[in-house]
Amino acid sequence: MVMIEPVTIQKGLDIDAIRRQFPILNREVKGRSLVYFDNAATSQKPQSVIDALVNYYTRYNANVHRGIHTLAEEATLAMEKSRDAAQEFINAASREQIVFTKGTTEGINLVASTWGRQNIRAGDEIIVSNLEHHSNIVPWQILIEEKGATLKVIPVSEKGELIIDEYKKLLSPKTKLVAVNHASNALGTINPVREIIDEAHKVGAVVLIDGAQSTVHLDIDVQEMDCDFFVFSSHKMYGPTGVGVLYGKRELLESMPPFQGGGEMIKEVTFEKTTYNDLPYKYEAGTPNIADIIAFREAIDFVNGIGKKNIKEYEDELLQYGTNKLRQIPGLRIVGEAKEKVSVISFIVDKLHPQDLGILLDNYGIAVRTGHHCAQPLMDCYRIPGTVRASLAIYNTKEEIDELVVGLKKAIKMLS
Ligand SMILES: Cc1ncc(COP(=O)(O)O)c(C=O)c1O
Predict the structure, then answer these.
(1) In the chain, what is the straight-line distance between the N-terminal and C-terminal CA atoms, in Å?
(2) Helix/strand/coil (H, E, C) string of 69-101?
(3) What dihedral do alpha carbons 87, 92, 95, 101 form, nearest 10°?
(4) Contact at 8 Å (CB) between 392 and 372?
């Protein structure tokens, strides 16, 4: 029997109405109503995003920028409106600083292959943290191998917080780049990016912030943050897959070489010499992911419609509720108890493998992620093979957390 406690809904937030916008939440898994707690991997999509995709393909599918016919103009306009929306969403100074990518991973690889190749030399140092996703480690490893540079790592505390005093010790005139996430996908830790950026700038280093896990939960102001690059993915903030944004300071984007060659990124091509297009098209070779970029604007509108402040307040309440409930389960240990967290709860249970728990929870219709969460160095640091991760979104409820607790207790009993 699930004990359901009264749910205090944040003032003005109608979670039922929000849930109704997500058709997938009506489906059943293994005969039970779906409880979706894998939002840090990818969030579900509201009807407005789905409709925008269908509408594009049904009414104005055409290639962008080059056409003079009506459909091409409509598609171009809609795509460029998404750029404006993304600019406003992160408060970039200009629309030219918004480069569309496939996602966070491509954004980081773009910076590594362009700015990195141009600026990193033998003996230079790049700093990442022990909390990084593989996509903010491996591109830098490829670069340092090519250049003879070195990777330095900011250590993480038992609680899952970056040890900032140790970070400061790593900084030196050799530091050319600091690349850290704003929020950790594995633990939920929110990193003090403002301080990290200020300290890096004191030694003249450039800073890339991986916003894959923060953009959906926190207010983002790239000018106030003063980061040099900021990358994020649409699919983790209720938008379609295959779209991301790279923001960069204008002087950096102007001075970097192109990422890929092809159509769209050129001004003029001759066999003797090619000149490159202006920002942001210089970095957008080939036909972009038009439909998904267009639908991405609906995701931005969805988030703006609720408001980041409301989202944070509600998710904080869920996070606290879930953390307290899960802590009461004998043998369960929360991994990552930073003071500042987004709504991610990672945990392990004594003597049980996370994957076994995940499989049993799926039998109860509860989707969680298990494993290393693409953060193997972090799991190695804690000497664990992985965790079970429940990552919460605006459409999740306390009743769903109660179901997770009941499901976990049953799973633990079966496996013990
Ligand atoms: C912190 C972080 N960085 C980068 C990524 C990679 O994002 P994508 O797969 O959308 O490129 C993820 C995805 O989980 C992430 O959580």
Answers:
(1) 21
(2) CHHHHHHHHHHHHHHHHHHHHHCCCCHHHEEEE
(3) -70
(4) no
pLDDT band at 329 (very low <50, low <70, confident <90, very high): very high
Q: Whose CA is nearest to atom 16 of ligand 1?
A: 185
Nearest atom in ligand 1 to the alpha carbon of residue 42 is 14
The structure tokens listed for 209 are 């912030």
Residue with tokens 């369960």: 332
Distance CA 113, CA 93 (A): 24
Instruction: Decide: 185 in ligand 1 pocket, CB within 6 A.
Output: yes
Structure-token match 């896990």, residue found: 213
Q: What is the mean pLDDT of residues 111-138?
A: 98
Residue 358 structure tokens: 């995940």
CA of 133 to the centre of ligand 1 (A): 7
Cβ neighbours of residue 38 under 8 Å, at least 6 residues apart? 367, 368, 369, 389, 391
In whole angstroms, what is the distance from residue 300 CA to residue 91 CA? 13
Q: Is 318 helix (H, G, I), strand (E, B) or coil?
A: helix
Give the three-state DSSP class for 246.
Answer: strand
Q: Mean pLDDT throughout 127-131?
A: 98
Give the model's confidence band at 2: pLDDT under 50 very low, under 70 low, under 90 confident, else very high. very low
Distances 94 to 85, 142, 243, 311, 312 between C-alpha atoms, Å: 11, 31, 19, 26, 27
Q: What is the reported pTM?
A: 0.96
Do 146 and 264 contact (CB within 8 A), yes or no? Answer: no
**Euclidean distance between CA atoms 85 and 94, whole angstroms:** 11
Q: Is 234 in the pocket of ligand 1 (CB under 6 A)?
A: no
